[in-house]
Amino acid sequence: MGVLHRRRQTAPDQPATGEGRQRDPVQRPRPGDIIIFGRDAGHVGIYAGGGRLFNAYTTGKPIGFTKVKDMGPIKTIRRFG
Question: Can you give the pTM of this predicted structure?
Answer without folding.
Answer: 0.66
